[in-house]
Task: inverse folding
């Protein structure tokens, strides 16, 4: 298993030219299911995945990606979308699932359940509730003052919460790309696109944000631009 994982991680590359061969919708869908199993902030799952296979839509998305090679030659796209606006819906979903857990009075998970219920009932709204960025700003100053006396969670402004949502979506994207690789397929994550045009093409609401667009297909060896370049590991690894 360790060897297999090593092989998958090491053979994943950003592929800029794909072979003109169809790939299986079902396999890609299965990889998207793996994406949805990624760890994510407060399990709110503020993401959506748009699996684009229609040639008409693909042409439009490629155009919005400036027809860069990875988009022009892709067999399919997966668009990873963050939906910070769905926090309340997903909070209530978690709450109902946790409440539905049928635990006996002496169950050791009973205490955890009660903590989780409080977490989704009170804490999540405190962090996510927003009114034109004003509540976030209030939370920020509140954290600054309380933080003088004890550790406190400080990433509480409106833009901080965007980062939180994008972090989780990026983890899902990586799950997806590794899952694709394990199926012998290739990918290229892209942030070079006109987000407004892509949102319009996919009929996304204003509040949705595109995390990344992932081109999918089977690698043409010419689509790998040389050996993988990384800074020396000892420049980025710090053991303390
Ligand atoms: C968030 C993100 C955005 C990226 N955007 C693009 C892009 O628009 N076009 C592209 O060709 N590659 C894009 N890449 C791929 C990177 O250039 C690539 O991951 C990097 O050069 C390392 O190469 P490797 O993935 O083969 O290891 C992106 C990667 C990430 C993670």
Result:
């Amino acid at each position: 298993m360790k060897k297999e994982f090593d092989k998958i991680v090491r053979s994943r590359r950003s592929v800029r030219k794909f072979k003109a061969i169809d790939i299986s919708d079902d396999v890609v869908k299965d990889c998207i299911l793996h994406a949805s199993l990624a760890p994510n902030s407060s399990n709110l799952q503020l993401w959506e995945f748009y699996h684009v296979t229609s040639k008409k839509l693909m042409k439009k998305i490629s155009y919005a990606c400036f027809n860069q090679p990875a988009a022009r030659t892709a067999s399919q796209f997966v668009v990873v979308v963050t939906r910070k606006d769905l926090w309340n819906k997903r909070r209530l979903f978690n709450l109902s699932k946790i409440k539905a857990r049928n635990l006996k009075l002496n169950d050791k998970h009973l205490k955890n359940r009660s903590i989780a219920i409080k977490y989704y009932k009170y804490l999540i709204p405190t962090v996510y509730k927003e009114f034109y960025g004003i509540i976030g700003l209030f939370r920020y100053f509140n954290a600054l003052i309380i933080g003088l006396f004890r550790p406190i969670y400080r990433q509480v402004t409106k833009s901080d919460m965007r980062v939180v949502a994008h972090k989780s979506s990026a983890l899902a994207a990586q799950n997806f790309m590794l899952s694709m690789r394990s199926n012998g397929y290739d990918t290229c994550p892209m942030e070079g696109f006109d987000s407004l045009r892509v949102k319009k093409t996919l009929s996304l609401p204003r509040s949705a944000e595109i995390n990344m667009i992932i081109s999918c297909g089977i690698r043409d060896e010419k689509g790998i631009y040389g050996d993988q370049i990384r800074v020396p590991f000892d420049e980025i690894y710090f053991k303390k």
About this structure: The chain has one domain: 17-222. Residues 40 and 50 are 18 Å apart (CA to CA). The chain is about 45% helix and 10% strand.
